[in-house]
Fold this protein.
Amino acid sequence: MSRIGKKPIPISNQVKVEIAGGSVSVQGPKGKLSMRLHPAMTVKVEDSQLHCTRPTDNKLHRSLHGLTRTLIANMVEGVTKGFEKKLEMIGVGYRASVQGRNLSLMLGYSHPLVYPLPEGINVMVESQNLLTISGSDKQQVGAVAAKIRSLRPPEPYKGKGVKYAGEHIRRKAGKSGA
């Protein structure tokens, strides 16, 4: 039995869960998320807890069991607390600003990079080179953070670029010219 899949998901009183037609919808103070379930997985609400079950012990059902439970738990956590990722920009002249639903980034190119923010994602510029990306969908927050990081990934010689807060960049020694 899956250790993760058999754990129940606690639902607080501010979260409303709807299971209908092979999909799960979760609504809370931070928004509404929905997900289509695999036809083999079943989800039930029993006394303010969600339970995921699988029909058999074959490999596909075992792998889907823990995945389904984790995705639904992330949805419940997202609509109550939300998720956030922090990005640091390291480099001379690197800065960011939010203009409406666009994120304008100066990353050492000859022009500013404009990244349109998807619905459900908020970006706060704490200082000129520190970004906080937040939203209720964990996958979407991570994807936006990865996309912004990919615009100028950190390089190993001087460490310049966009990196996750707390990420360690392995440094290389440069040429030892004579």
